[in-house]
Amino acid sequence: MRSIRFLYSDFHISLSVRNWCPHTVTKTVTCQVQNGTTLQRVYQTCRWPQGCNGGSYRTVVRPSYKVVYRTITSLEWKCCPGYSGSQCEEGEQIVEKTKEEKQDG
């Protein structure tokens, strides 16, 4: 059984042959994280069928949140330098043509 490291290197080689190269992309995203709790007093009416002398208050504990910024780094595959197109096929022919033009000229 092969390790993941070898599989990754084989995958990298096969994609590089097709003019694809790995690029590290860093993005900043917003996230909501819990920032403690808040206590809230809520008025509660009488629930008894016989009636009461008014209502009562109950305390509700609710989480509070804040917005933070986190940096995420991911690996994306893009065309190698000098190549373009939807499948990274454009660019190699241009290099070959310029070599041929230099030999003809």
From TrEMBL:
Q: Where in the cell is it found?
A: Secreted, Extracellular space, Extracellular matrix
Q: Which PROSITE patterns match?
A: EMI
Q: Does the keyword Disulfide bond apply?
A: yes
An example Gene Ontology cellular component term from the record? collagen trimer
Residues annotated as transmembrane: none
Give the UniProt keywords, A-Z. Collagen, Disulfide bond, Extracellular matrix, Secreted, Signal
Q: Which residues form the EMI domain?
A: 17-90
Matching Pfam families, A to Z?
EMI
InterPro entries hit by this protein: Collagen/C1q_domain (IPR050392), EMI_domain (IPR011489)
The primary location reported for this protein is secreted
Write down what this protein is called: Collagen alpha-1(XXVI) chain
